[in-house]
Amino acid sequence: MFPQGMKKAVMDNPKKLANLIDLVNLPSTLREFMGQSQSSRLGCFKRVWLYIKENNLQDPNNQNVVNCDEKLKRILLGKSQVELVELPMLIKLHFPKAPK
Amino acid sequence: MGKIPSGFRRAATQSTLLKNNVSSSPHQPIPPLKTYQNSPKKKPIKDNASITNKSTSPIIFDSPKLSDAKSLFNSLVTTSKNTPSDPRFYNSILESFSSVSSLQDSIFFLNHMIKKHPPFSPDRSTYHILLVQSCRAPDDPSLSNVQQALNLMTTHGFPPNQVSTDIAVRSLCACGRVEHSIELIKELSAKNCPPDTYTYNFLVRHLVKNGSLSTVNFFIKDMREGFNIKPDLVTYTIMIDNVCNSKNLREATRLLGVLREEGYKPDCYVYNTIMKGYCMLSQGGEVLGVYKKMQEEGVKPDLVTYNTLIYGLSKSGRVKDAKKFLEVMAEMGHFADAVTYTSLMNGMCREGDALGALALLEKMEMKGCKPNSCTYNTLLHGLCKSRLLEKAIELYGEMKKGDIKLETGSYGTFLRALCRNGRVAYAYEVFDYAVESKSLTDVTAYSTLESTLKWLKKAREQGLIVSPE
C-alpha cells in the first residue's frame, strides 16, 4: 500500500502539477499522432487512451493488453503490444524533465 | 477515514445553527424588511438575480458612464406611456446601474431620476442600494463612502435602522472588509442603532470563520463593555462549534463555563455541538457521556443528536452500542435518515463487516430511505478493504446507474483493489467514469491512476502480486 497522502501530493506539489498539465512543445513523433504541436502530459495520455478505445485496440482475450496499430507503435517505442499498466510510463518518456 | 461525511457535516453545523437562530429567540419579531437582508449576500449573482427575480429591471447598464445612464433613463420615461409608480421599478434600475458605476455616479443618477421623473419617490430600500454599493469596494481604505451613504439616508428622512446596520455589515463582510464592519458596528451602536441578534451573530460567525479567536473575543468584550450588547446562546453555540472544529477543547470547556455563568442553560444545539466536537477530536466514545448529561438535564434529543451519537460510537468502534440507538431513536419518533445509516455502515466497515453494511443498505432502501453518494462511497471503500471485489464492482455498477459521484478516497481504494486483482482495464474504465461524471478533477483522477499503476508494477516486480497471465 502506498501512503494515503499520495493522491493529494500531486495537487499540493506545484512542480509535479506543472509537469502534468503544462503545455509543452511535442517531439515530432508525438506531434504527428496528436495533430497538434503542443500538449500537456495529461492531455496526451487522455488522447492516446481515447484512440485505443475508439479503434478497439484492446486485446479481446485480455483487456489489459493493447495491440498497437502502426500509428500507435510509432509513439510507443515500436512495441506491437503494450500493457495498460505501462501506458503512463511510456507516455512520460516523451516528456523529459525540463532542464534547470 | 477519520472525516465526517459531508452530509453529516451539513446536518450538524448549518441546520443546527439556523434552527437554533429561530428557536432561541421566538419572541423577537423579524422586522418586515428583513427579507431584504439576503440580497447583499447574493452579491456575486446580483446581476442575474435582479433580472430574473425582480423581473422589472427595464434597463441593463453595461456602461459605467453617467451620461449614458441618464439618456437611457430619459428615453425610458419619455417613450413609454405607462411607467409604473412602484418604487421597486426604479430601485431595480438604480441597482442595475450601481453594479457597474461608482458611488458618486449612482448618487448623481438617483438625483437625476428624482428630478426627471417626479412620480418616483425614493424609499428606504433605494438608499439601501446606495449603502450596499458604498460597502462593496474591497480596497476602500476607510469608511468614508459608507458614512456618506448613511448621511444621505439621514438627510432624506430615512435615518439608518437595524436593517441598514445588517445590510452594511453583511456587504462589508462579503467583500472581506471585516475590520471595517467591526468599526461600523461600533459606530452605529454609539449612534443608537445597535445591531440586532442576527447581525451580531452573523458577524461573530464570520469572525470565527475568517479571523482569529482573539478578534472575536475582543469584539465581544468591546460590545459588552461599550454598548451593553451581550452574546446570547446562539453566539456561544457558534463559538463552541468553531473551537471544537479547530480542536481546541480547552477553549470549548471554558466557553461552556462562561455560558453557565451568564445564566444560559445549554439547549439541544449546544449539546449536539459538543458531541460533534468530541467526534472531531476522535473521542467519539465521549458522546455517550454528553447524551447522559442531556437526559439528566431534561433536554430532549433531536435527530441530529442521534445521528451524532451513532456517528461517534461507530467511529470509536462501538458499533454494537450504535446499533442500539437505531432502536432508541425509532422509539422516540425519529426516523433514521441517510446520515444515520451511513454512519453505522462506516462503523461496520471499520470492523470488517462490509457484508453487514451491504445488508443494511438493503434494509434502509426497504424502509424508503434513499442512500446518498456518501453512503455508496463508504460502502465501496468498505467492500474493497474487505477484499470483496465482485461485490464492490456490483455496487459501482449501481452508482454508475444512479450518476453517483466517486470520492477521492473510495476512488483510490477501488483502483488499487482492481489492479491488485489484475483488472487494469477496469481501472481505466473507472478512471473514465470519474472524469466524465466530474467526480474528481482530471489531475486528481489521473495522478491516482498513475500512482496506482506504478505501485502495481513495483509490487509485481517484487513478486508481491502475481500478474494474472
Structure description:
The complex is a heterodimer of chains A (100) and B (469). With 100 residues, chain A is mainly α. The radius of gyration of chain A is 15 Å and the shape is globular. Chain A contains 6 helices and 4 strands; from the N terminus they run H-H-E-H-E-H-E-H-E-H. Chain B has helices at residues 6-23, 38-41, 46-52, 66-79, 87-98, 103-116, 124-136, 144-155, 162-174, 178-190, 197-210, 213-227, 233-245, 249-261, 268-280, 287-297, 303-315, 319-331, 338-350, 354-366, 373-385, 389-401, 408-420, 424-436, 442-461. Chain B is globular and about 85 Å long. Chain B is built from 25 helices and no strands. The chains are: A mainly alpha (100), B mainly alpha (469). Chain A binds chain B through residues 1-2, 4, 6-7, 10-11, 16-17, 20-21, 42, 45-46, 49, 58, 62-64, 83-89, and chain B through 408-409, 412, 416, 419, 422-426, 428, 442-444, 446-451, 453-457, 468-469. Chain B: Residues 1-56 are annotated as: Disordered.
Give a concise summary.
By secondary structure, chain A is mainly alpha-helical.
Q: What proportion of the residues of chain B is helical, as a percent range?
A: 55-70%
The biggest beta sheet of chain A reads:
2 strands, antiparallel
Order of helices and strands of chain A: HHEHEHEHEH
Form type of chain B: globular
Poorly predicted ranges of chain B: 1-55
Spatial shape of chain A: globular
- Percent of residues in beta strands of chain B: under 5%
What's the number of helices of chain B?
25
The radius of gyration over CA of chain A amounts to 15 Å
Mean pLDDT rating of chain A: 83
Q: Quote the beta fraction of chain A.
A: 5-15%
Total strands of chain B: 0
Helicity range of chain A: 40-55%
Number of strands of chain A: 4
CA(first)-CA(last) distance of chain B: 34 Å
What is the SS-derived class of chain A? mainly alpha
* Subunit organisation of the chains: heterodimer
Q: Treating each run of at least 4 consecutive H or I residues as one helix, how many helices of chain A? A: 6
What is the SS-derived class of chain B?
mainly alpha
Q: Low-confidence spans of chain A: pLDDT under 50, at least 5 residues?
A: 1-7
Biggest β-sheet of chain B: count, sense, barrel?
none
